[in-house]
Amino acid sequence: MLLLSYLLIFLFGASLASGLLVCAQRLPERQSILAPRSRCANCHHPLSWWQLLPLLSYPSLKGRCYYCQSAIPRICFFAEISGGLISVSLWAAAKSAEQLIFTSCLFSGLFLFSLIDIQHQVLLPILFWPWLLLLASLKAPQLYYITAIVTGLIFAAFAYCSKGLGSGDVELLAGLALLANVDVINYLLIACLLALVSFPIFQQHKIAFIPYLSLAVWWWEIGSKLCF
Fold first, then answer.
1. Name one GO cellular component term (predicted).
2. Contact indicator for 105, 134 with CB cutoff of 8 Å
3. What is the per-residue pLDDT across 30-64, written as a single tens digit (0 to 9) for each?
4. Which residues lie closer than 8 Å to 57 by C-beta, 6 or more apart?
5. How far is the first Cα of the chain from the last one, in angstroms, to the nearest whole number?
6. What are 188's strand-pairing partners?
7. pLDDT tens readout for residues 181-190
8. Cβ pair 55, 11 in contact under 8 A
9. What does the H/E/C string look like for the chain?
10. Is 0.85 surpassed by the pTM of this model?
11. How far does Cα 155 stand from its chain's mean position?
């Protein structure tokens, strides 16, 4: 029964990730997430329902469009797998319904921001601020406003004097400082380490830092507790 529960949670997470990927692709372009139907980015042919099944469509199509045989971006399959694994980890680590609700909102937002950053290198205020206010309302008794303000000012000054971080990265770090107090320093250290380790592999000229920061938050808050 436990295995079945985890399987259902994994499938739910993969489906949610697939929907968030559509949002990440369309919202920065100011397109509706409801219409038109998903289509191939190369030949623009509308996709059938069976070509949109999370986890199944990518391997069944061998990573290529059914109509024009152009390669389907790997991020589509990777996002679905990641979404499923994250959902299972949140469920396994949750000690209460309140904690599960908070972490689900936290990582759904971070997941969406990561996908947008990978594809567009931007953090949309119309998504970020409602997300931050929602999390703040869920964790209001534990907010550390003074630390948040000081940390935010430090990162803002760093961004002004250096080109190392984008404005979206600074906003997200300041928001996490508001929610997590001193833990944001640990997030930043882990994220920088991950970025340095992965740089020789991916050789990015522009680093999308939000995915590294999101992974750091996940490891500090969820992964390390499950492993240790």
1. plasma membrane
2. yes
3. 899 988 888 898 999 999 999 999 999 999 999 99
4. 50, 51
5. 25
6. none
7. 667 888 989 9
8. yes
9. CHHHHHHHHHHHHHHHHHHHHHHHHHHHHCCCCCCCCCECCCCCCECCHHHCCCCCHHHHCCCECCCCCCECCHHHHHHHHHHHHHHHHHHHHCCCHHHHHHHHHHHHHHHHHHHHHHHHCCCCHHHHHHHHHHHHHHCHHHCCHHHHHHHHHHHHHHHHHCCCCCHHHHHHHHHHHHHHCCHHHHHHHHHHHHHHHHHHHHCCCCCCHHHHHHHHHHHHHHHHHHHC
10. yes
11. 21
In the structure encoding, which two tokens stand for residue 38, read together?
């998903």
